[in-house]
């Protein structure tokens, strides 16, 4: 795993000589240890990361990176200047997986929803999904690497995704619920415009009222009383004969 230590053993100084440790297909070693002089030399970028414990006969490379993956060969040059192989060992450095996001996207038709997971690290096994702890609904579709799951928009529930490799495992979940149908863009724009205009009119009217109130604090609404006009009766006098 990235960040762990690599141990390469077999460096026992019994008969003297010099040990050489390097990558299998590289010409020059990155470590030399002279048993007679008890002197250690390191080269390239391994110098600050490599320690040798002579009592255990092991070399330790600290903080392993993915670039450290490969085959290592340990050799010894004896006092007669003869080189022989002590051992060859292979290491595969894997970065642990970590989910960075899990999102859902509704299709343009509104009939399907796609769930997509994004993660860091090396994927060694396909991504797995469940819904409410059980199998996925019928008609679902998975992308090539299973990082995208497509279901019907009505397939509500809690979806759980799992990403694993040989050194780690990570989980995330997302719940799909029923939501109101989306409002079309044109209708939404018209509704927003009407709302803004109504708010502006109310603001203007309120400002006018406040201004009049400040200029004439004693003004009171006047009520006109409608008084009915007095009814007059016309009398005609007739002379009696």
Automatic annotation (TrEMBL):
Segments crossing the lipid bilayer: 189-210
Stretches assigned to the Ig-like domain: 95-177
Keyword match Plastid: no
UniProt-listed Pfam families: I-set
Family matches, as InterPro entries: CEA_cell_adhesion, Ig-like_dom, Ig-like_dom_sf, Ig-like_fold, Ig_I-set
Signal peptide: none
Record's keyword terms, sorted: Glycoprotein, Immunoglobulin domain, Membrane, Pregnancy, Signal, Transmembrane, Transmembrane helix
Keyword match Transmembrane helix: yes
Family annotation (PANTHER family): CARCINOEMBRYONIC ANTIGEN-RELATED CELL ADHESION MOLECULE 1, CARCINOEMBRYONIC ANTIGEN-RELATED CELL ADHESION MOLECULE 19
Protein name as annotated: Pregnancy-specific beta-1-glyco 7
């Amino acid at each position: 795993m990235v960040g762990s230590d690599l141990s390469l053993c077999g460096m026992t100084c019994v008969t003297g000589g010099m040990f050489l440790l390097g990558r299998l297909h590289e010409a020059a070693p990155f470590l030399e240890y002279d048993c007679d002089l008890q002197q250690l030399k390191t080269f390239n970028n391994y110098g600050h990361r490599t320690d040798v414990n002579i009592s255990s006969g092991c070399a330790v490379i600290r903080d392993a990176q993915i670039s450290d993956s490969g085959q290592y060969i340990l050799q010894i040059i004896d006092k007669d200047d003869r080189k022989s192989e002590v051992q060859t060992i292979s290491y595969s450095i894997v970065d642990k997986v970590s989910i960075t996001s899990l999102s859902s996207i509704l299709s343009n038709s509104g009939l399907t929803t796609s769930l997509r997971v994004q993660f860091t690290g090396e994927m060694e096994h396909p991504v797995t999904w469940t819904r409410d702890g059980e199998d996925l609904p019928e008609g679902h579709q998975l992308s090539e690497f299973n990082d995208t799951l497509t279901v019907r928009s009505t397939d509500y529930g809690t979806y759980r995704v799992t990403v694993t490799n040989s050194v780690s495992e990570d989980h995330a979940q997302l719940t799909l619920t029923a939501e109101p149908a989306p409002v079309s863009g044109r209708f939404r724009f018209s509704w927003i415009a009407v709302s803004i205009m109504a708010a502006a009119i109310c603001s203007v009217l309120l400002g006018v009222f406040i201004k009049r109130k400040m200029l004439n604090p004693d003004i009171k609404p006047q009520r006109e009383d409608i008084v009915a006009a007095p009814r007059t009766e016309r009398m005609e006098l007739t002379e009696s004969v």
